[in-house]
Amino acid sequence: MPVAVSLAVLVCLFSTPGAAMAWEGYKEGCLWENVNSPTDLPAEAESEKEKCDRDLQVLTSLGKGAYGSADLVLNKTGIAKHRDKETGVVSHLPPGGKYVLKKFEEKRVWDYFDKKESEPTRTEPCMQQYVFENIGMAPQVFASWKCGEPAMGFLLMQRMGRRLMDLSELLNAETLVDPASGKEIKREDVTREVTKAFLGGLEALYSLGCMHQDLHDENIMFDLDGRLRFVDFGLAHCEKPGTKSETGMKKYITYESMSLVRLKELDAEEVEAQKNHDFGTFKILNTWKSPLSFWNAEISSKGNVKLLDWLRGKELGVEGS
């Protein structure tokens, strides 16, 4: 299904007419700046690229997509910030941390409702920060800004571990073992736990009034402790919480799940069961809030390599970044 048609279907399932176009509460407290003004740029920067990268050191490329690119970067100057949601206090984090820096072109930010957003580059980072601060289902945002000509958006965020797709590929080739009992951990048990976390996370996201709209297996990841998380909010939008019907949200969960069921990355029985449960049934299980239990396993063919180490980048005895 073409993207435009697909998103139109999802919006119809999920939205109250007019509500999505009016609410911008997700922008409150957003860590976004426009640094295009020469007075805001470091005088020692020799080029526009250096000015816009704000002295972040690129360590490695994490990939490029249709709408942008991502790099693993080192924060050398303390640009990363943390906002306390309860007090609104913003504090700078010390230099030295590693983060993901996403870059995207302002002109390619899609305007779903023809809102003519005055600053398109702030929409994605503000939504992602809003989701993180309220339910934790997105990577934390540490800074975001607009810079350059033509304008680019920059989003400095929390590092993740592996993708759901990576886990699926590993399970196709490897066997997981419980180190305490020595027994094999069945793939269907792993898939069932992932599915419960996925469905609970979606219920939490929709309860917040947000649609992701691009949940394929590369945009579902695990953080470095093993919690399931949604990434890439470039096609997302948020509406005022409480304006959605539970019927519409349940239909959207089914819609978002089916392609992953066909790839055998979600459990078909659990997804079918959610149709008959009250909305919120999976959310209250809290599986989506915690590291999933199977990350304590070991990969049998790789000696003492723990699955959690693999999640964090270690594979075949080689330590990742």
UniProtKB/TrEMBL annotation:
**PROSITE patterns referenced in this protein's UniProt entry, alphabetically:** PROTEIN_KINASE_DOM
This protein's record includes keyword Signal: yes
Q: From the Swiss-Prot or TrEMBL record, what is one GO molecular function term?
A: ATP binding
The Protein kinase domain extends over: 56-321
Signal sequence coordinates:
1-22
Does Electron transport count among this protein's keywords? no
Q: Which Gene3D superfamilies match?
A: Transferase(Phosphotransferase) domain 1
Q: Which Pfam families match?
A: Pkinase (PF00069)
Top-level taxonomic group:
Eukaryota
Cross-referenced InterPro entries, in alphabetical order? Kinase-like_dom_sf, Prot_kinase_dom
Keywords tagged on the record: Signal
What is this protein identified as?
Protein kinase domain-containing protein
- Organism for this UniProt entry: Chromera velia CCMP2878
